TrEMBL record:
Residues 422-555 form the Adenine deaminase C-terminal domain. Belongs to the metallo-dependent hydrolases superfamily. Adenine deaminase family. The lineage of its organism: Bacteria, Pseudomonadati, Pseudomonadota, Alphaproteobacteria, Hyphomicrobiales. Pfam families: Adenine_deam_C, Amidohydro_1. This is adenine deaminase. Residues 270-356 form the Amidohydrolase-related domain. Coiled coil: none annotated.
Length: 575
């Protein structure tokens, strides 16, 4: 036998000897109510772990040799939870900070996009990916990543496809794949040759039938962009394992999707759960996949089916059900102990048979230094003038009393409601930022590095409203743009120039003075902070805006503003 065969011979022989009381196992977790995701039943038993994997269910303890025994306290044992699709760099926390907030929620595996960070890194995309994935195997969660399907140069995608822990190609850009872009053809060819997965993206009812056929025909493995019942119907009809996402979009959309699954009696085997994007603050306050399972149960989905949507279904869709997703011999010992199945309460979280979190506190984390990814800002707003932020009407009514302007809605992201053209009062040659008796703050979308005339889009904004001062932030992917919210062009211009001093940041100003700042120093998209530092910085932004009249609900303002850039790109508001 060669060296590898000899190694596996030893492992096989050891497992046999453990089960016959002649060798010592690592861990026995006793006194459990174990969820069988295959039979959809619960039974009393114990789980024996060795070398990171489950080796036995309810072994004969009279002959057993084991190094450690753990009392499961009669709790339910369920598989470690899985997020089927998350942009794990665009929730602002680097991988170890994300672990602080996510793993205590019971999440032990994520399938992750990294396209925004690598797009922001530009020609340094390969180096950024190398640094991002550094020591990924030491993280207290299992990471499977996807090379960028959009927003990066093809050569970056090709290089990243060869890295660990990359298993496929991330979401394509709708505007290019639907028109037959050669770079997209090459990216698809590379991942097909590699035998990897391709992530689907874009609401299926927005596609022509022929383009919708194109995606599964070339091997797209899933679809995470459904927004209504019609989207779901088409998605599952065309064979897509379909993700129901909770981190973006409004609560009403999520309920519409779940209600459709229940009312139409679609088999839940078709569905997985994911967040797409989620803030650290929501992870800390509401939870992650544990919270999502509870929402599913509240909407009428069988709790065991909901758990499968966050475990076994996802593992199966990525052909990894032989490794994760169930509590059966041979699988990695990723185990969550909870006192309820309908309302997951992760009392204990094991990854690879090691206790990594207890009572929503992380016990073990990797020590990885990301400071080498921090970049200095390259200013681009020196020539920006305050008057460029004034709202110029799209149209003026015949009697000169009304102006047509854009109204952007942070809660409408991903829908046609993201922007509207609305009529507002027009007095003395000025737009009055008021619609149906409700006053709105203004928004300016500003190009950072112009080639010729700077691209600026101005309008009204629904979602953040302040009486004075301004807030501004920046996002570099796929194009470097700022947004600023305020009421006065001079204050907004000053706030934008404050952000321009950083590689990325969110800044609040009042009377041309800085009141709060959250630096995003890692390529302008991630904060080099712990969870405590990150939440404190986001809280300071919200507190400063509250003093200026904003009444924020839900996600922190910084996350709301950063989510705008996805739709600004989608609806072509970036030059």
């Amino acid at each position: 036998m060669n060296a590898l065969e000899t190694q596996h011979y030893a492992k096989v022989r050891t497992i046999f000897d453990i089960l016959h009381g002649r060798a010592e196992a690592d861990l026995l977790i006793k006194n459990l109510n174990i969820l069988d995701v295959h039979g959809e039943t619960v039974y009393q038993g114990s789980i024996l772990v060795h070398d990171k994997r489950i080796v036995a269910l309810s072994p004969d303890e009279s002959i057993l040799k084991v190094r450690e025994v753990f009392d499961g306290e009669g709790l339910y044992a369920i598989p470690g939870l899985i997020d089927a699709h998350i942009h794990f760099e665009s929730q602002l926390a680097h991988p170890t900070a994300l672990a602080e907030a996510m793993v205590p929620c019971g999440t032990t595996t994520i399938y992750a996009e990294c396209l925004d960070l690598l797009s922001a890194a530009g020609e340094e995309g390969v180096e950024a990916a190398t640094a991002l994935f550094k020591d990924h195997d030491k993280l207290p969660y299992r990471l499977f990543a996807f090379a960028p399907g959009k927003k990066t140069a093809a050569h970056v995608t090709q290089a990243v496809l060869q890295m660990e822990p990359v298993i496929g190609l991330g979401e394509f850009e709708h505007f290019t794949y639907s028109s037959g872009d050669d770079d997209d053809f090459r990216k698809a060819a590379w991942v097909r040759a590699k035998g990897g997965f391709m992530n689907g993206h874009w609401g299926v009812t927005a596609l022509s039938d022929m383009v919708l056929n194109y995606l599964p025909a070339i091997g797209v493995s899933n679809n995470h962009d459904v927004w209504n019942e019609d989207d779901i119907e088409k998605s599952i009809r065309y064979g897509f394992p379909t993700h129901i996402k909770f981190g973006v979009g409004s609560a009403e959309v999520i309920k519409v999707l779940l209600r459709a699954i229940v009312d139409r009696k679609w088999p839940t085997d078709n569905f997985m759960l994911c967040t797409d994007n989620i803030s650290v603050e929501r992870l800390l306050k509401s939870g992650h996949m544990d919270w999502i399972i509870g929402v599913c149960a509240d909407m009428g989905i069988n709790p065991i089916h909901a758990i499968k949507m966050a475990t076994y279904n996802t593992a199966r869709s990525f052909h990894m059900e032989d490794q994760i997703g169930s509590l059966t011999p041979g699988k990695f010992a990723d185990i969550v102990l909870t006192d309820s199945l309908s309302r997951i309460n992760p009392r204990y979280v094991f990854k690879d048979g090691e206790l990594v979190a207890k009572d929503r506190k992380l016990l073990k984390n990797a020590e990885i230094d990301y400071s080498g990814m921090c970049k200095a800002g390259v200013p681009g707003l020196d020539t920006l003038r305050a008057e460029q932020l004034d709202i110029v009407p799209l149209e003026i009514s015949a009697d000169g009393t009304q102006a047509k302007v854009y109204l952007f809605d942070v809660y409408g992201r991903g829908h046609a409601r993201f922007f509207q053209e609305v009529w507002v009062p027009y007095r003395d040659g000025q737009v009055v930022p008021e619609l149906d008796g409700v006053r709105y703050s203004r928004i300016s979308v500003v190009q950072r590095y112009p080639r010729g005339e700077r691209h600026v889009v101005n309008g009204l904004f629904k979602g953040v409203r302040i009486d004075r001062g301004a807030v501004a932030t920046f996002w570099p992917a796929p194009k470097p743009y700022f947004v600023a919210i305020g009421n006065d062009s001079a204050e907004m211009c000053h706030c934008l120039k404050q952000v321009d001093g950083y590689s990325g940041a969110c800044v609040v100003t009042e009377n041309l003075q800085q009141k709060a700042v959250m630096p995003l120093e890692i390529y302008g998209v991630m904060a080099n902070m712990t969870v405590a530092e990150l939440t404190a910085a986001a809280g300071a932004i919200d507190a400063a805006l509250e003093e200026m009249g904003n009444r924020n609900e839900g996600e922190p303002v910084v996350n709301k503003l950063l989510s705008l850039f996805i739709s600004l790109h989608r609806f072509r508001f970036m030059a």
